[in-house]
Write a structure and sequence with these properties.
The complex is a heterotrimer of chains A (298), B (366) and C (270).
Chain A: H1 2-47, H2 64-71, H3 73-107, H4 112-120, H5 127-138, H6 143-150, H7 165-189, H8 193-201, H9 206-234, H10 238-244, H11 251-260, H12 265-286, H13 292-296
Helix pairs in contact in A: 2-12, 3-7, 3-9, 5-7, 5-10, 7-9, 7-10, 8-9, 9-12, 11-12
Chain B: E1 4-16, E2 23-35, E3 39-43, H1 50-58, E4 65-70, E5 73-74, E6 85-88, H2 100-104, H3 106-111, H4 115-128, H5 144-156, E7 162-166, H6 174-191, E8 194-199, H7 202-208, E9 211-216, E10 219-224, H8 226-231, H9 236-241, E11 246-256, E12 259-264, E13 267-273, E14 283-288, E15 294-297, E16 307-316, E17 320-327, E18 332-338, E19 351-355, E20 361-365
Parallel strand pairs in B: 3-8, 3-9, 6-7, 7-8, 13-20
Antiparallel strand pairs in B: 1-2, 1-4, 4-5, 9-10, 11-12, 11-14, 12-13, 14-20, 15-19, 16-17, 16-19, 17-18
Helix pairs in contact in B: 4-5
Chain C: H1 12-35, H2 52-57, H3 61-94, H4 100-108, H5 115-128, H6 135-159, H7 164-171, H8 176-204, H9 210-213, H10 220-227, H11 234-269
Classes of the chains: A mainly alpha (298), B alpha+beta (366), C mainly alpha (270).
């Protein structure tokens, strides 16, 4: 009987030790995320019900900002437009990046990692400067125009593209293409090459192998690439500020305005929450089967 | 002070399972006594609980119930790093960031043994496993067999009371495995410590062990020296798992101490009985090893004590020939006959007679 | 698949790759070109070759200060993100605990929300509790962005080696925490470095969150943004980022070279 009681005593001790390890490991990151991520989101939710950002009105609970947002068709239109811009940008990125990833994975041979690095190196330049580069390229005093002028091909400078929706999309595509190529490449690299030989052995033509084996198997990587552009682009506000003009303004600018200029924090909170929810719903709707590691590109 | 190096008393281990199954019982009410200096093998198919048992002795798993004692000390509350045991892992678990010598001296360094004492110990340990001069290599530069030896040296240098080996030869090819089996035995006799060895390879277990414990589905079925495990299996599972054997269904006609008279294959015959009190009329299984059956040319007439049958399949195996004989009862028996001059050979379709010594036949509970 | 078929000298794929590379490099090369052009405006035709923008960099205290700020924020926030991410990674890969799914979800959600939301939320909470906006606030924001990456990078490495290595450490007499320090972390070292570098590059170039959280001291991207409105400052800014790009390329290629060299010397000694 003594055996049994000793065992009963010993068991919680060992479990306690494991629990202690977990606690020590999890407490710092858990607390940090709670303090600086979960609570801030909670405070934002709280703010969205406040009558005003400052003064006595801040204690008043109200649904006014939600009503205002629901009544504000221009804000909703802007959100819709931002989603469309994000969709177009991500789709163009995927279409441009897929052949690149395919070439690297299936045709480039042993030098493929070096070639991949070559694609990524430009992204080590400041994000703002890369936007600026396009502003310079597209603007009326920009390189296209001044080059054409100096060659005498055109008489008068014209801002052909700058300050438009198109300029925003071109710039964003430029910034994101390498980051879409990465998860697609990773997905293609994971395809067991014996599968292709098996398909060929079973009589598939090269295009059938591509359509029926490679493409379906690469879909998780493609989706990860798509989402890794789509998510940040929905909330984008810097690119529109620099190259978008009136025509290229996005929802993120509206949010930023509430905080930086209008100082209507409760309304800004409502808008942020709405955007966050829309993006989360779309991500979890589309992103089933997408590995979070692919999304993070690690 | 008991003579036991390792003692397990009523040890149970259940794993909490997520999903459908509530709990998975890995080890059930296990009682074992392993003597000092013994080469003791835990044998069984994968999932039988042998590795879990070994990991409980090492301290990586905690028993759900029961007690583990090493050198007469209760170990349940002692963490792995304070137990006087060391382990050789199946995948070797050599630290990839350290050299061979740094791997081998790891345990001594942790204990704070000064370098002047560590260096000769490392040299000695590497010589013991026949890898002198390999200390500066990285583990990845060595072959599988060499990595295995490093893992052995890394464990043995700490002079553990018990060395635990978890299928240490599983990843090696057949030829290397046979060489290492021999070498492990030699090393054990040199260092003299208790070896607790886990394997699913019955041939390996029989060849190397002083005693073998056969496990299945968490239960300990039989403990004994290799010959008793092979020749006196306690259950049908043990008989089936260890080597090749035949089974005939039988019914008890008469029971006496240590033997029974049964009816099998339409005949009455005597068999060994090791399961305590046999009940008359009980259905049992008769088991006979193929090499214990003799074959004779059939010459009409019925000789007492012989079964009749027809050779169906004949497989030539070099030293032996394996016959599959169909009995009149419809059952089949495997018979292994050593090839030598003077032994008659049969072909498929020949009428044959069979017999065996009742001491070689054993009746088992279903 | 078609090894027998002769490959053309320049394949279609190779041509496409070349075009893509040109698309990615041209804007940057143009910027670098203009950083050596003796004109305050970025227009053709080019003027004289000059290095005066690079010389002027040294006399632009605000710019250098923001560069220093960004280096500090990047360094500290990446250290914190790598440390916390590593702890979380060990917990999720090596243990099973209650609410593990919830923890995984919360720690990876920063990946799937636009960073403007994070910036705004942190701004609100700091305002609510009277924490002044500062580089510290920016650094905290960057840790939240980077913890998921650090955690996933380290977790991938941990999943890549058997926990038998850790058991071997304890079997040889190390305590659990001793094993972490002397076995787990050294083996994960490449992943820790990768997590740190990834966090640092993200932080160094981060604008969307920093914009809401900077106080009186700007980070480099925030400073650059403020300068974009003054065309006369552009060549200077361009020169600086050209320098930063070249430096980061050299660092990355340098690490790669070091890794290869250590590999090849190891082979030779074998």
């Amino acid at each position: 009987m003594s055996t049994r009681s000793e065992a009963l005593l010993a068991r919680p001790a060992a479990q306690l030790e494991v629990r202690q390890r977990i606690t020590v490991l999890l407490t710092p990151p858990g607390l940090w995320l709670l303090l600086f991520f979960v609570i801030p989101l909670g405070v934002m939710a709280l703010f969205s019900f406040r009558a005003a950002s400052f003064g006595a009105q801040r204690q008043v609970f109200t649904l006014e900002h939600y009503q205002r947002f629901l009544a504000d068709t221009s804000a909703q239109r802007l959100l819709w437009r931002s989603l469309l811009i994000a969709l177009e940008t991500s789709l163009i990125c995927v279409v441009l990046a897929f052949p690149l990833a395919y070439f690297l994975s299936f045709r480039a041979g042993p030098s493929r990692l070096m070639l991949l690095t070559i694609l990524v190196i430009p992204s080590w330049t400041s994000f703002l400067l890369r936007i600026l580069a396009w502003k310079v390229l597209l603007g009326s005093s920009g390189i296209f125009n001044s080059l054409l002028l100096s060659l005498g091909w055109i008489e008068e400078a014209a801002p052909i593209l700058l300050f438009s929706r198109g300029a925003v999309i071109i710039t964003l595509v430029y910034i994101w293409v390498p980051f879409v190529a990465l998860p697609i490449f990773a997905g293609l690299e994971r395809i067991n090459r014996h599968l292709l030989e098996a398909a060929e052995d079973l009589g598939s033509r090269p295009w059938q192998i591509f359509l029926e084996v490679i493409l379906p198997l690469s879909l998780p990587g493609v989706l990860a690439g798509f989402l890794s552009v789509f998510i940040p682009t929905v909330g984008e506000y810097v690119t529109p500020l620099l190259v978008g003009g009136v025509d290229g303004i996005m929802y993120g600018n509206l949010v930023q305005d509430q905080f930086a200029r209008a100082l209507n924090w409760p309304l800004g909170s409502v808008m942020s929450l709405v955007m966050m929810l829309v993006v989360l719903v779309l991500t979890f709707g589309l992103g089933r089967g997408v590995k979070v590691t692919d999304l993070a590109g690690v | 002070m008991s003579q036991f190096s390792v003692e397990l008393r009523g040890v149970c281990k259940t794993f909490p399972e997520r999903g459908e199954r509530q709990e998975l019982a890995a080890v059930q009410d296990l009682n074992l006594q392993i003597r000092a200096g013994e080469f003791f093998t835990l044998l069984g198919p994968s999932g039988c609980g042998k590795s879990t048992t070994l990991r409980m002795i090492a301290g990586f798993e905690t028993p759900t119930a029961g007690q583990i004692r090493i050198q007469d000390q209760a170990m349940n509350a002692v963490p792995a790093y304070r137990r006087p045991v060391n382990m050789v892992f199946q995948d070797y678990a050599l630290f990839p960031h350290l050299t061979v010598a740094q791997n081998v001296e790891f345990g001594l360094k942790v204990k704070g043994v000064p370098k002047e004492q560590r260096d000769p110990a490392v040299k000695e340990a590497l010589e013991l496993v026949q890898l002198p001069g390999h200390g500066d290599r990285k583990p990845e530069e060595l072959s599988g067999g060499q990595q295995q030896r490093v893992a052995l040296a890394r464990a043995l240098i700490n002079r553990p009371a018990v060395l635990l080996l978890d299928e240490p030869l599983g990843a090696l090819d057949l030829k290397l495995r046979k060489a290492m089996q021999f070498e492990l035995k030699q090393i054990q006799s040199q260092v003299g410590c208790t070896f607790v060895y886990v394997t699913h390879d019955q041939e390996e277990a029989l060849k190397m062990s002083d005693r073998v414990a056969v496990m299945s589905q968490g239960w300990l079925l039989q403990v004994g020296n290799p010959s008793s495990i092979y020749e006196k299996p306690a259950t049908r599972f043990v008989a089936d798992f260890i080597g090749e054997t035949n089974f005939l269904s039988a019914r008890v006609l008469k029971a006496s101490n240590g033997s029974v008279l049964v009816e099998a294959a339409g005949r009455e015959m005597l068999a060994q009985w090791l399961n305590g009190h046999a009940k008359v009329g009980e259905d049992v299984t008769l088991t006979v090893r193929p090499e214990r059956i003799s074959l004779f040319t059939a010459n009409g007439g019925h000789r007492k004590g012989r079964l009749h049958g027809v050779a169906q399949d004949v497989t030539y195996l070099g030293t032996d020939t394996l016959y599959r004989v169909g009995l009149e009862s419809g059952e089949g028996l495997l018979v292994r006959v050593q090839n030598s001059s003077g032994v008659p050979r049969f072909s498929s379709g020949d009428q044959v007679e069979l017999s065996w010594d009742p001491a070689d036949a054993q009746a088992l509970v279903e | 698949m078609q090894a027998s078929r002769a490959r053309p000298l320049v394949s279609f794929g190779g041509l496409y790759f070349g075009l893509a590379a040109a698309f990615l490099y041209l804007p940057i090369l143009l910027l670098i070109l203009f950083s050596f052009n003796d004109s305050r405006t970025l227009v053709f035709p080019l003027r004289e070759f000059t290095t005066r923008w690079y010389a002027e960099l040294l006399h632009s205290p605000e710019l250098l200060r923001s560069l220093g700020n960004s280096l500090w924020v990047g360094l500290l926030s990446s250290l914190v993100a790598t440390l916390l991410g590593t702890m979380a990674a060990i917990a999720i890969v090596r243990f099973r605990f209650r609410l593990q799914g919830l923890f995984m979800a919360v720690s990876t959600i920063p990946l799937v929300i636009p960073s403007v939301v994070l910036g705004v939320a942190l701004l609100l909470v700091f305002a609510q509790f009277g924490v002044p906006l500062s580089l510290l606030a920016v650094g905290i924001g960057h840790t939240i962005l980077n913890i998921p990456y650090a955690m996933l990078i380290v977790a991938a490495r941990l999943a890549g080696f058997s926990n038998h290595l850790e058991e071997a450490g304890m079997d040889l007499g190390l305590t659990y925490w001793g094993t972490l320090l002397r076995v787990t972390l050294p083996i994960s070292a490449p992943a820790l470095l990768a997590a740190f570098l990834s966090s640092f590059t993200t932080s160094f170039d981060e604008f969307a969150v920093a914009f809401f959280l900077v106080g009186t001291e700007a980070t480099l991207p925030v400073y650059l943004y403020s300068q974009l409105r003054f065309p006369s400052r552009l060549p200077l800014v361009v020169a600086l980022t050209a320098l930063v790009m070249v430096t980061s390329i050299l660092i990355v290629l340098g690490t790669e070279w070091l890794q290869r060299r250590s590999l090849s010397t190891r082979r030779r000694s074998a």
